[in-house]
Every structure is written in structure tokens, then in C-alpha cells.
Amino acid sequence: MTDYRELLGRTFAEGRRIALGDPGEVLQQDRSRQELFALKDRPLPFVREYLGETTWGASRATLRSAAKNPKTLACGCRKSSKSHTAVQCIIHRTCTAPTRCIVTGATYTQVRENIFARIRKLHAGALKPLPGRCGVTSLRVDADWMAIGLSTNKPGNLHGFHADIELPPELDFDEERIDEDSLLPPDPRLADEDARRSERDPMDVIGDELIRAKRSTSKARLFFVLDEWAEMRSDISDALEGSWMGDNYSVLAQFNPTFPPDSGHPAARALRRGSGWHRIHIAGREPPAEMHPDGMFDECFHHVPVSMMPDAWVEERIVDWASAPALLACHLYGLPANVGREFQFIPYRLLKARFDSPIPDNGKVSWRHIGWDIAASESGDWNVAQLWVNGQLTAEDQWRTGDTAVSTARVLRLAETWGLDGVPIPTRNIHIDATGGSIGKAIADGLRARGIVVDAVDFGAGEVREWERLYGNETFFVNRKAELLWVLAMVLARGMATVPREFADTIRQAQWYTWKNVPRASGTAIGVVESKDVIRKLFGRSPDNLEAATLAWSRATVLPTFTKTNNWRTI
Predict the structure, then answer these.
(1) Nearest residue to 37 via CA among 247, 224, 177, 207
(2) 421 shares a domain with 295
């Protein structure tokens, strides 16, 4: 026979336990959180005892530095556990003390799959229970205590993250005790705080510190993680730097250095001596003497364990990349990609020399040119349109879509918007990528059928030589791409062109292509060393901004004219 009184009692007890929490469970949670808080500045024991993972020299140095220094930079080769170490840092910082962790990268997919997929796996498989719930791109412990993943192409979306947050008092602690402590006047008998604490249970002291951290804005930490920083746009990084203020923030940036050491990208600036960053270098194997990064880093680790980077993989890469020293430098030795690259079409010094030498608008709409690098699909490269006015890069628009009709309409609207005094830019001054049988050629043919003539530039075709007066009649080129890259370099060198420093992506990509002399029966010609696929492999993306800049200097439909006063000028 059922004893309904006993059943009712059990039901009431279960309901009370659910509503108020079991005292034993609450005490256990308190103790667990206090143990975690004791490790808030000790990442190595946390990774070992909670995540159950081993570390190697570079990852240990990164973990220590992220807990100790305001800014930590891990610059390294492939297959060196940089991203995995960043994930360990995120879980350690988020689960041990009140923290807002902001994780960002070049793309949302990268943040979701490279970082937060690993966070979910490690959090779920922890040896001891960890606080928080994992989402697709989040790890939330409380309303303002969390790690979140963000990716955006709008710098304004990243403003407003600061360490001056106040976390809500929702943890399982005695709030009455906190209120009483905050209202009591100072007790002279407690002047020797350290002595008083030495007589108490260390975990009680840690619990008090956690309560104070929970209530004090000065203890709430702000932690930024920049995954593959080198691939993030410069203006996005600049927006983030506005949050790196005060005493209670820290930043971990890790990347493969796909940029020249003298580049203007924030990641390159962080590598320089006196930048304020603690710089950690990771190389797959000891770099050769001519590439050795003497004095560039604060800590160096020059042999990734063979369990992570097998010797066979290293040997294959050395053979495969024998003719591409930039690939070896960047991906095997973890060094900026132009080490040993003496034949850049457009060295950074050439761009830098023109930063502060603007070219005035001469008031002629015919001297306005648009270069349009076309993306074939929404998931692929970017569409980039650039406006050049009298030889100066003045405006830029970039978007992603695979709908060529939408993109074409957008560029024609830009010709109107970027015109002069209501007069649109002539369509013959719109230079589009029509290489081979590309989609750009189809767009150009479709526009021509509508009576709209644009300059369809085929990079793979032969030289056109409309700029022969600029480079002379004894300089030859393997193809149109080499010719226009050479032209862009020469107009920069002669003061006929300038790329203002705010066009950081163009400046960065301008240094990616190198040239070589190609023997031919008719004489030596200048060729481009890297294909576009190699550039993607080397630098992680397509040089869309540079391609648009290069296209804009084609004059196949209207030959350039020259005047020579103090400087060269051309349309």
C-alpha cells in the first residue's frame, strides 16, 4: 500500500532541493569555484589538472605570458599548436575568475570551427567539472562572465568592450555577509590583514577574494584573443586597440606571419622592438643563418616536437618549396614572408615614401579610373572596386556576392557616385578583370552588347605597351599582369601615384608578388614568380585589393598622356 505521506514528503523535499539547491551540492560548488579561482593566474596546473593535457615549451611560454603580460604575441609556423594553446588560454581565463573574453579572427568560420569547436570538446571532456555552458561561439558562466566569438568587416561593431564592467551578484555565496562587510567601519584590530589571513583556511581566503572580484569592477578581467591576426584587416585591429586600456585587460594574438617585417599591418608593428608586446617565436626547425631572427623576439622555440611536426613532413616541404623561399620562411620557420625576397614588384619603402605626398584632384572627370577585381561566388574572394583620382587611390568598396548582375549594377552606380559635379566617370575608365575565359569577360561582353564599353583586362594575355614611354622600349614582359605590376611600381617611384596609408590591405598585398627574368628568343622579359593560387597558399587569401589597384592602371582603351613639370602626371 502506497504511503502517500512519505511520497508527499519526498516530492516536497525534491522540489525544495530543485528550487533552493541541495546544501551539500551548493557547498561542493562553492569549494570547486574556489579551487578554480586559486588557479586564475596559474594556467599550467589548470591545463594539467582540469583539461588533462600536456604542453611543450612554446605552449607553456604562451600560457604563462597570457596570464602575466598585458600583450602576448605568438608568431610561428604551421603545425605548432598555436590555436590549440589559444583555446587552452580561453578556457583557463573564462572558467577561473570573472572575465569577458572576446575572440575574433578574419572570418566567422575560423572563429567557430578553429576555436570554439575545440573549446566545446575540451570543456565537455574536462577531468573535473568546469562552470559555464558552451554555445556555437560562446562559453557563458554568467550574464557578463563569458567568452564570445565575433567576426565582422565593420570596425564599429567592435567598439565598446572595456574592463570597467560590473558583474551581477548571482553566484552561490552569502550575499548578506558581503553587504555587512561593505557597511562595517574599518576595524583597527584587523590592520594586519596578512597575519589574519595566515591563520585561516587558504580556501576561505580565496573565497573572499572571489566574492570581492565578483563585486568589484577593478577585478573583472577583459581578455582578447586574436586568431590568425595577420589575416585580419588593419582597421579591425585598430578598432580593437581602443579597448586595450587600463590595468585589467590582456591580449593574446597568434598568427602565421604572412607579411613583410616592415609592413604597416598592426601585427608587423607588434613584432618591432619596443612595441610593448611579449613576442614569442615558434619555428618548426632551426632557421638557417641567413634567416635567423636575431633580436626580433623575447622567447624563441626552434624545434616543434616531431609528434606534431614529423621530420618527413619537414623534408617534403623543403623539397616542395625549394623555389619559393617565402613559403619556407613563413610556414616552416615562422618568419615574416618576405625574408630573402629581394625582387618584390612594390617594396614597402616605395609605398611609404608617398604616404605624405598627396596628389591634388585636377578637376577632370576623365582622370578618374575604377579598377574592379571580380569575385565569382559569395563564398570565394571579395569583389573590390577602387577609385583612382589623378593617380591617387581615393576610395574603395568591397562586397561579397556571386550575383554578377548585382555586382555590375553596383559598379555602374559607383561610376556615378564617384563622378565629378554630377558627371559620371566614363565607362571606358572602368577596368575589370577579364582574364582568360573568366566571368569578367562575360560581363564585359554583356555590357558591350548594351552599348557600354569597359576596359576588359586579361592578365594572362601579352603585353600592351601603352606605357612604353614610362618604362622604355627595351623592357619586355611575359604577360599583361607583369606589365601592369611594373607600371604601378614605376608610377609610385616617379611620384605619379600614391596609396594613402589608410588603404592598409592594398599596401600589404602590394608586397606579395615578386618578379623574375625570363629568357626568351627575343630577349629577357619580366615575369611574375607566384601564381594567384600560390599567393592564396602563402598568404591565406587572394590579393583582391592589389588586383583592383593594378587593373586601374590599364589604359588599353585610351592611351595615357604625359606632362612634365615638377613631377610626372598622367591620366
Answers:
(1) 207
(2) no
